Amino acid sequence: MTAPVLKYPDFNEEFKVNTDASDYAIGAVLSQKPVGNNRPIAYASRVLSRAEQNYKTTEKELLAIVWAVKHFRPYVYGTKFKIISDHKPLIWLFNVNDPGSRLIRWRLKLEEYDYEIIHKAG
């Protein structure tokens, strides 16, 4: 098995943050799309705490986004970027008026960024 080849970030290209959550962990990939396909710049993951493991699926998926954006802040802050998730209700969540206090707090943490959430079936 060979190690994945990582791309150097190009701050003139748009960044993409792919996130995912499971029952026990969250993960993210920071990538950019040169001519052709996406090339990874960095990977990140962590185990969920016992309390976080009790979150609903939508909460875990949003936690993954908030955590990933904070983790990759040196790359994405001040630029327009895309967040890609396989959890379609997240798109609805960003358009609803009263999603719940925890989700509102997390949404507020993302307010300082210029991003677009895209659903990609997975």
From TrEMBL:
Stated name of the protein: Enzymatic polyprotein endonuclease reverse
Keyword terms of this UniProt record: Endonuclease, Hydrolase, Nuclease, Nucleotidyltransferase, RNA-directed DNA polymerase, Transferase
Stretches assigned to the Reverse transcriptase RNase H-like domain: 10-113
InterPro entries: DNA/RNA_pol_sf, Retrovirus_Pol_polyprotein, RT_RNaseH
PANTHER family with a match to the protein in the record: PROTEIN CBG26694, PROTEIN NYNRIN-LIKE
Record has NADP as a keyword: no
Molecular functions per Gene Ontology: endonuclease activity; hydrolase activity; RNA-directed DNA polymerase activity
